[in-house]
Automatic annotation (TrEMBL):
Protein's name in the database: Cyclase
UniProt xrefs under SUPFAM superfamilies: Putative cyclase
Source domain of life: Bacteria
Species the sequence originates in: Mycolicibacterium iranicum
BP-aspect Gene Ontology terms: L-tryptophan catabolic process to kynurenine
Record InterPro entries: KFase/CYL, KFase_sf
Molecular function terms from GO: arylformamidase activity
Pfam families: Cyclase
Length: 332
């Protein structure tokens, strides 16, 4: 099942979208989301049912297993007890200062507040990969130079660039777990092929249209919630699904697993790693959403037989970032 570099290059040449929306384009396949498409997506809201697709950002997140990313560290910087605590236990100079202004303020005012901060990789949990996240041979999507991503951030293709698109579109859930009759989780070793995606589309009686955001349920997140094991591999999209996404003019793809594509290198391309990332982010300009929580959405779609919905998934607008957290919602 391992592809060769020449298979990879052939696919890359066929699906490369460079120049398709102009030489300065930084949106890639999000260009398929037109105003008409956004209106079509809004028309899918029938029951007013809101289904959250975001996982928790907490110390109990999926990171840590691979060492290079950590879970969020959440720190309280002010809490409601600080005023009286500092007055009683703070150093003398602070007690005097606090006594003179802060505690006087708090003494005759019912207002209290709490503040906090978070330190975390932007890829810690539910996220979008920006187009600047993955590249090869010194070029990013649309031919932008790889060195335009500097230690100050991405000058091209940073996540903030997609703000103009929302991101809002018609979402379509493809439920691989249900299709395979798996209990909860697609076990490792069986990548999801383009043919299987077609079978699921037929089984669910749903159409994939230009500008859709395809959301793939593999059960990984549900499994993670019960085991706490973020290192579990699972199965993902076979790298040749990049051509399927291209053919259907999909605007973006997201999944409930750690990298959307199948993590097993023996199902990839000989001599490289994560070939679907390379094809989607760098050649097509198609963003990948990872660690989405699709359990509730899959249950709802199975119950009403409707696999399309309005998807609202704006990433946090971190300037120059190569990815960002998101708390997506599906609305039916
Ligand atoms: C890499 O591609 C390195 O990471 P991710 O799976 O988060 O996109």
């Amino acid at each position: 099942m391992t592809g060769t570099m020449s298979d990879f290059r052939k696919a890359a040449d066929e699906l490369r979208n460079w120049g398709r929306w102009g030489d300065d384009d930084e949106l890639g396949t999000l260009n398929f989301i037109t105003p008409k498409k956004v209106a079509e997506a809004a028309g899918l809201v029938k029951r007013g049912k809101v289904i959250p697709l975001g996982g928790d950002f907490s110390s109990g997140g999926p990171q840590g297993a691979f060492k290079f990313r950590q879970n969020p560290v959440h720190v309280m910087t002010i809490d409601g007890g600080d005023a009286s605590t500092l007055v009683r236990y703070g150093p003398e100079w602070l007690r005097n200062a606090v006594a003179s202004d802060v505690s006087a303020f708090f003494a005759d005012n019912p207002f209290r507040f709490n503040d906090d901060m978070i330190v975390m990789p932007l890829q810690a949990a539910t996220q979008w990969d920006a187009l600047s996240h993955v590249y090869y041979e010194d070029k990013l999507y649309n031919g932008f130079p790889a060195d335009s991503v500097t230690s100050f951030g991405a000058y091209h293709l940073g996540i903030e660039k997609v703000d103009v698109k929302g991101i809002v579109s018609r979402g379509v859930l493809l439920d691989v777990v249900a299709h395979r009759g798996a209990e909860v989780f697609c076990e490792p070793g069986r990548p999801i092929t383009p043919d299987e995606l077609d079978e699921i589309v037929t089984r669910q009686n749903v159409e994939i249209r230009s500008g859709d955001i395809v959301v793939v349920h593999t059960g990984w997140w549900t499994c993670f919630l019960s085991t706490g094991d973020g290192g579990q591999a699972g199965s993902g999209l076979h790298w040749t699904c990049a051509s399927w996404l291209h053919r259907h003019e999909v605007a973006a793809v997201a999944a409930d697993n750690l990298m959307v594509e199948d993590p097993d290198p023996s199902n990839g391309v000989e001599g490289t790693f994560l070939p679907m990332h390379m094809l989607c982010l760098r050649d097509m300009g198609l963003m990948l959403g990872e660690y989405w929580d699709l359990g509730q959405l899959a249950a709802d779609c199975a119950a009403d037989g409707i696999y399309e919905f309005q998807l609202v998934a704006p990433p946090l607008k971190v300037v120059g970032a190569v990815g960002a957290p998101v708390s997506p919602i599906a609305i039916k």
